[in-house]
Design a protein that fits this description.
heterotrimer; A alpha/beta (507); B mainly alpha (412); C mainly alpha (374); A: 507 residues; alpha/beta; Rossmann fold; 2 domains; 17 helices; globular; C: 374 residues; mainly alpha; ABC transporter involved in vitamin B12 uptake, BtuC; 15 helices
């Protein structure tokens, strides 16, 4: 079977998300669709899965035009999709999730759950995907949930399987397992579209690579005949530096000291387990790890959003373990939270209001209970200019900004004052390359000014290039403390997966 | 999470809850000692027309108080593990009996009549709650149960007065469905905030039924608002079981319908294809939508069904018991039904239990209100409201509301 | 066209649509006329009814006085709902908070002998404090246990209602020689002066200076939102509680404070009814005002000026509705229907757009409900 997109155009108010995109994939091959965030990958994916209807262009299967008006049509035509955010009902079982929509039924529409179990077993055994049909989704690790998604697709007999950023949540070893699954799908005569922003993975697994930029397909490449930097240039439209420009760090005394810190969930699980480390002035310490190994909770404990079960945190030798977020803020800590829209900004409020969101109570912006809005306005105009926030009017809601500019609002707010310690969680998640470079440069600038910086990121490349020292978290513990210039990505990957590179000394 | 975290231990949360249950037992014991032992005499609980059992009010109060202290000690020291809920239920039931004995000390009352009344009064609350569950399980908040009950009560009274009881009930059902259709179109098609639509429907129902009541029903009372309500149907054999038979099997068809609705809703939600899909669209509609399930269509259908069930609940007033419609006859029962939904954790059987608790409080007030206990009757009426707050404050943290309730689904 | 104008146009269209539907209801329920096939008479009734609606609300000084009298508690209670909305809370408990304020205001009103210049503000303060304390309860419950305020405020309304019924029959409050739930009168020194005192002794002009109190409260609400750190915190919490928490705001205390502020507004509503309109309290002193206040806040989109305008509109409808009931056989309950329809149309700008085929971006009311928090 051959699946084609011809001249697909999809417009949203203000932007053209897809601009006459041509694409084709046949059974038996892997097409990688690569592009940076905002290039139009997810829109395109929604078009080919029948969620959006294109404004122009058409979809064809073996030359015959298709009109998908809902995912049901796409499924019936043999298209299957594994979404980045898994489409699984957390409180239901594997079998219930898999048969949803194609339920085997008995009398009076009753659900034949035994048949459902059998169907799951059959498919999962055929493709060597080990699954317990009765497990509840929310109890399962991410890698297993992805297998459930794959079984869902195979159960519906998809000829073309679309994977959207499938490796974002996987460990390096799980990624290798995942590639095995992809190869077995291709071997079984199915086609795969692999959507990603990770160049290396595309080069590893794909037969062909299509590069998407600003809604257009800007190039096609064959992995064997191309290099990483060539594709990167196609993605961004100019030569990109994959390394961060920075001088040798000159660390001073310890600014942040974390001693034997543990965080326990309300249900009793220990998610941060006796962590101790220091961050010195003038250095950037990066924390690497697969998502869900306690980094989020560690940052929550550091910023005061969550109480630690044991251990202590001190900033410049002052114990802040029992201080509120605001007191830590006053002690010179800047915090760039993980989720910009939910935690960092009140997107309904104006850019100006967001620029003073953590500082409105300072004497500069208020006296007693009265806000000094004129001061806030003047200050926000300065910050908008100084931090290159692209807006005509700071009184517009923050929701009108692009992701990169929203992140700059947070960076401006947090780094523009007199700080001693900066904690940045996923500082560049989901923003464009230009903004990434800008945010990195600001972080390095703070370091050079003598601020202690802690960067937490699940993007290994980011941690490796930005940090002067890398800590790896695994199951709530710090399992490695390494110099990024002296270890390879693969070695860090092994630490992230809980094992140890051959020859590494026990730490 | 790729990592299997270290094994679970008893969490602080659970320990805290166990402790507050223990303290509750102590408080109940104190009530036994200082209140329930204050009125002398035996209390007669009539359980059939002719027979009764008696409880010595003071003796029972003392005995229960002592037992509760023991239970509290056991709860606080080591807990009851898996039996915790059984103990809680037994303690609550005994406490209730002690309360009745105290109230009726030196007198007697029809215990069976009170329970029979409870079951009958639970009907509109149960049916309203089933309507609430059907909509909230599909992801639509239903604040408008009150309006559906009220409007259906009004139209079924008119319909039954003009035609017959069956057609009247059917008209009530259609009325419930019509209001549900407004809720559905507004919240699904026009994506209006569901709570606001719900409120608007309640206002609308209250206004229009009062309006019709004054403008149409009062001038035409005999022709349009007067009917003979249904009579109880004795179920052969079952109704002859002493005590239980009178309570459950000598009731109107509305009671049987409401039990059947609970059973059907439970089976449907947990054992059928429809139920699987319904629960999925209430928890995570995208999961169902990306598998080709038409989320909004199913929401429409379930809301109409919810309206139909609530419509039967509304018809209970004129056709099941009173024989006419009065202005605001539901008097907030729809909100109580909403509380029963939460009380029952969005499960039909749980909601039935909640409805029975509220109905029991009403029935108790009617029976006990005659005894001069020194408690103003206002406080007895208030009891279910207080209980609801305690339940919502104490349990909702542990309950699982449908995650998507209140969120419009964007299928494009 | 700027934002305000646009939203005004939608409000206007919504009111028109609601009047149209109500007209339809009036005509089809005119059973006698329709039964005789006398459509002319049915439409005649409609004309008389709507003319009465206008005449009774704006047609004379007395009508305007009635409009203001009706609008006063609606505005104060509307502020109670609006201010909570701004903080992300759905306050259905204005009824209960009004009753609490009515009782505390009443008590200060009869239990003290003071010069009016002290007594009136003291009694109003007591009403605000009573409402604030009662309003804080659902705030505390939500902050501590996560209990949803939609449920707890409904239940607290019931509790307040029955408590007041009982209180009014106790020795402290009950009126000499009465067995029903009706209180003694407050001292004359605690009565709010009449608004139209300069018109001499016209007892038909009921409007009282509670309206001035309500206007001041509206201004206070505006000042709180626009000029204070607390207002900034409340709005940030209302829009995005998690971001507010990350910004170091104490969101749980804010919940309690916001509900207390809301309760204070509603308490003033209860107090101004007792001290201004009635001079005593009865079980029905709050009536349906707490519920109507929700409609007021929705219609006014929770802004200070919007709440003011919609309270005046609803006050006018109520005053006009009474006239309509006198002039025709159309009962005043039609006003409830009319309000429900206005709220529905306001909440569904897409629908209004579709009906009137107008263009432009209609802003829907923000989401009030973000799940049960289970």
């Amino acid at each position: 079977m051959k699946f084609e997109l011809r001249g697909i155009t999809k417009r949203f108010p203000g932007i053209v998300a897809n601009d006459s995109v041509d694409l084709e994939v046949s059974t038996g091959e892997v097409l990688a669709l690569i592009g940076e965030n905002g290039a139009g990958k997810s829109t395109l994916m929604n078009v080919l899965y029948g969620i959006y209807r294109p404004d122009e262009g058409e979809l064809r299967i073996d030359g015959a035009p298709q009109h998908f008006s809902s995912p049901a049509d796409a499924i019936a035509a043999g298209i299957g999709m594994v979404h980045q955010h898994f489409m699984l009902v957390p409180v239901m079982t594997v079998a219930e999730n898999v048969v949803l929509g194609v339920e085997p039924t008995g009398r009076f529409g009753s659900l034949d759950i035994n048949e459902a179990r059998r169907m799951v077993k059959e498919v999962s055994e055929k493709y060597n995907l080990d699954l317990d049909p009765d497990a509840i989704i929310e109890d399962l690790p991410v890698g297993v949930r992805q297998r459930v998604e794959i079984v869902k697709v195979l159960m519906r007999d998809a000829k073309i399987v679309v994977f959207d950023e499938p490796t974002a949540v996987l460990t390096p070893s799980e990624i290798l397992e995942f590639f095995e699954i992809v190869r077995s799908l291709v071997a079984a005569g199915r086609g795969v579209i692999f959507i990603t922003h990770k160049l290396k993975e595309a080069l590893t697994i794909a037969d062909r690579i299509n590069v998407l930029r600003r809604g257009k397909v800007v190039g096609e490449a064959i992995p064997k005949k191309t290099t990483e930097s060539e594709i990167a240039e196609m993605m961004v439209g100019r030569a990109v530096q994959l390394i961060v420009n920075k001088k040798q760090a000159v660390p001073g005394e310890a600014m942040l000291k974390v001693d034997n810190l543990s965080v326990v969930e309300p249900d009793g699980r220990t998610v941060v387990d006796g962590v101790s480390f220091e961050v010195r002035t003038g250095e950037i310490v990066g924390i690497a790890g697969v998502q869900g190994n306690g980094q989020t909770e560690l940052v929550e404990a550091l910023s005061g959003m969550r109480r630690a079960a044991t251990g202590s945190i001190s900033i410049a030798d002052r114990d802040v373990s029992h201080d509120s977020p605001r007191e830590r803020h006053a002690a010179g800590m800047a915090h760039i939270p993980e989720d910009r829209q939910r935690q960092g900004l009140v997107t309904e409020m104006s850019i100006m209001e967001n620029l003073v969101l953590t500082r409105y109570h300072d004497a500069e912006f208020s006296s007693g209970i009265r806000m000094k809005w004129d001061v806030a306005k003047a200050r926000s105009n300065e910050l908008v200019a100084a931090y290159d926030i692209r807006t005509n009017d700071p009184s517009q809601p923050a929701s009108t900004l692009s992701g990169g500019n929203q992140q700059k609002v947070i960076v401006a707010r947090e780094l523009s004052r007199d700080i001693r310690l900066a904690v940045a969680a996923q500082p560049t998640r989901g923003i464009d390359v230009g903004s990434i470079e800008y945010v990195h440069a600001q972080i390095v600038k703070e370091r050079d000014a003598g601020v202690a910086v802690l960067v937490v990121s699940t993007e290994l490349d980011e941690v490796m290039s930005l940090s002067d020292r890398v800590l790896v978290m695994y199951r709530g513990k710090i399992v490695a403390d390494v110099d990024p210039k002296k270890v390879s990505h693969m070695d860090i990957g092994l630490y992230m997966a809980g094992s140890r590179p051959a020859g590494a000394a026990a730490s | 999470m790729t990592t299997a975290m270290p094994e679970r231990v008893v969490s602080a949360e659970q320990r805290k809850r166990a402790r507050s249950v223990g303290i509750t037992y102590l408080v109940l014991a104190m009530v036994c000692f200082f209140v329930f032992t204050r009125r002398p005499g035996d209390a007669g609980f009539r359980i059939t027309e002719t027979s009764q059992f008696t409880l010595p009010a003071q003796g029972f109060g003392w005995a229960l108080g002592i037992a509760l202290v023991a239970v509290a000690a056991a709860q606080l020291l080591r807990g009851f593990g898996r039996l915790a809920n059984v103990v809680l239920a037994l303690a609550t039931a005994s406490f209730f009996m002690s309360f009745l004995a105290w109230a009726a000390a030196g007198d007697s009352f029809s215990f069976v009549g009170m329970l029979q009344d409870t079951v009958s009064r639970s009907v509109p609350i149960t049916l309203g709650a089933i309507g609430g569950i059907l909509s909230e399980r599909s992801g639509v908040i239903n604040i408008s149960i009150e309006g559906m009950l009220l409007a259906a009560a009004c139209t079924s009274a008119i319909g039954a007065s003009l035609t017959n009881l069956w057609l009247g009930t059917l008209i009530g059902v259609l009325t419930g469905m019509a209001l549900a259709a407004i809720l559905a179109v507004m919240s699904i098609r026009y994506k209006v905030d569901q709570v606001i639509v719900g409120f608007a429907i309640n206002f609308f129902a209250l206004g229009i039924t009062s309006f019709i009541s004054f403008r149409v029903l009062v001038p035409n009372r005999d022709t349009m608002n007067s009917l003979l309500p249904v009579t109880p149907i004795r179920i052969p054999l079952l109704a002859d079981i002493p005590f239980i038979g009178t309570i459950f099997f000598d009731q109107t068809i509305f009671v049987y319908f409401s039990f059947a609705a609970v059973a059907l809703a439970t089976w449907g939600l947990y054992r059928t294809k429809w139920g699987l899909r319904t629960r999925a669209i209430g928890e995570y509609p995208k999961a169902a939508g990306t598998l080709g399930v038409d989320v909004n269509k199913l929401r429409y259908r379930n809301l109409l069904l919810a309206g139909a069930v609530a419509g039967v609940g509304g018809a209970w007033w004129p056709i099941g018991i009173v024989g006419r419609f009065d202005q605001n006859i539901t008097n907030g029962r729809g909100f109580i039904a909403l509380a029963a939904v939460i009380f029952g954790r969005w499960h039909p059987v749980g909601a039935l239990c909640g409805a029975l608790v509220f109905a029991l409080a009403e029935a108790v007030r009617l029976k006990i209100g005659n005894f001069d206990t020194g408690i103003p009757s206002e406080f007895l009426i208030m009891a279910p409201y207080v209980v609801t707050i305690i339940v919502v404050a104490g349990f909702i943290g542990a309950s699982r509301a449908p995650k998507a309730a209140g969120q419009p689904y964007e299928d494009q | 066209m700027n934002e305000t104008l646009k939203s005004l146009r939608f409000t206007f269209l919504a009111v028109i649509a609601a009047l149209f539907v109500s007209a339809f209801i009036i005509v089809i329920t005119d059973i006698e006329a329709l039964g005789d096939g006398n459509f002319g008479q049915a439409f005649n009734t409609l004309g008389t009814a709507y003319w009465g609606l206008f005449k009774g609300s704006f047609g004379s000084l007395r009508a305007i006085s009635n409009t203001i009298t009706g609008a006063t508690p609606l505005l104060l209670a509307g502020l109670a709902v609006s201010s909570a909305f701004k903080a992300g809370l759905f306050n259905i408990g204005a009824t209960g908070q009004m009753l609490a304020g009515a009782i505390t205001g009443l008590w200060v009103g009869f239990a003290f002998q003071l010069p009016p210049i002290i007594h009136v503000p003291f009694a109003l303060l007591a009403a605000a404090v009573g409402g604030a304390l009662f309003g804080a309860i659902p705030g505390v419950l939500k902050a501590r246990t996560g209990a949803h305020e939609v449920i707890t405020t409904i239940m607290l309304n019931g509790i307040a209602g029955f408590t007041v019924l009982w209180l009014l029959k106790t020795e402290l409050f009950k009126r000499e020689g009465r067995d029903d739930a009706i209180s003694k009168f407050v001292e004359d020194s605690a009565r709010l002066p009449k608004l139209f005192w300069f018109m001499g002794k016209r007892i038909d002009l009921l409007a009282h200076t509670g309206f001035i109190v309500a206007l001041l409260a509206t201004f206070a609400f505006w000042w709180l939102l626009r000029k204070t750190t607390l207002g900034f915190e409340m709005q940030a919490t209302g829009f995005n509680q998690e971001a507010a928490r990350y910004a170091g705001m104490k969101t749980k205390s804010l919940m309690v404070v916001s509900m207390a502020i809301a309760g204070a507004f509603a308490g003033l509503a209860g107090g101004s009814e007792v001290l201004g309109l009635y001079g005593y309290a009865s079980g029905t002193v709050a009536g349906d005002i707490g519920f109507d206040a929700i409609a007021v806040a929705l219609l006014g989109r929770s802004t200070p000026i919007g709440t003011l305008v919609s309270a005046l509109l609803f006050g006018a409808l109520q005053a006009g509705g009474r006239q309509m009931q006198v002039d025709t056989d159309v009962p005043i309950d039609l006003i409830i229907v009319l309000r429900a329809l206005i709220v529905m149309f306001i909440a569904a700008p897409l629908l209004v757009k579709a009906i009137f085929r107008v263009k432009g971006d209609a802003k829907a009311f923000g989401q009030t409900f973000r799940g049960w928090g289970g």
